[in-house]
């Protein structure tokens, strides 16, 4: 009876807007992973808060060894094309729940969502 009054986050879809991911994060849903496949310098400069860096070149191998195939994964790259390629790689090795973040980091920043940066040690 009360569940109809409690908003729930949207389900994972093959292509997701940044709003969909942010809603899930705000909901407090821990069963998802955000993957950034851009180069390490770009990742260190700025990335979606909570994202992990996994190089595009060996993405499938690294993720296979760390995540279950039914894990919800949100992925983004340098462009929507790179994002789509990365998502395809993961789907081809058996990941069932992979969402491409449309617009990637730029879309995330455009609406003012939190980002992180890794400072260079001098």
UniProtKB/TrEMBL annotation:
Pfam families, alphabetized: Rhodanese
Domain of life of the organism encoding this protein: Bacteria
PROSITE patterns associated with the record: RHODANESE_3 (PS50206)
SMART domains in alphabetical order: RHOD (SM00450)
Rhodanese domain residues: 28-117
Protein's recorded name: Rhodanese domain-containing protein
Organism: Planktothrix tepida PCC 9214
């Amino acid at each position: 009876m009360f569940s109809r009054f409690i908003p729930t986050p949207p389900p994972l879809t093959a292509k997701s807007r940044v709003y969909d991911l942010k809603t899930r994060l705000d909901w407090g849903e821990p069963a998802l992973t955000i993957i950034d496949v851009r180069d390490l310098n770009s990742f260190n400069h700025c990335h979606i808060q909570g994202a992990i860096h996994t190089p595009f070149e060996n993405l499938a191998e690294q993720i296979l060894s760390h995540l279950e195939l039914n894990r919800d994964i949100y992925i983004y790259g340098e462009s929507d094309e790179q994002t789509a390629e990365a998502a395809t790689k993961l789907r081809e090795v058996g990941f069932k729940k992979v969402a491409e973040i449309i617009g990637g980091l730029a879309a995330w920043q455009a609406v003012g969502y939190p980002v992180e940066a890794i400072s260079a040690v001098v």
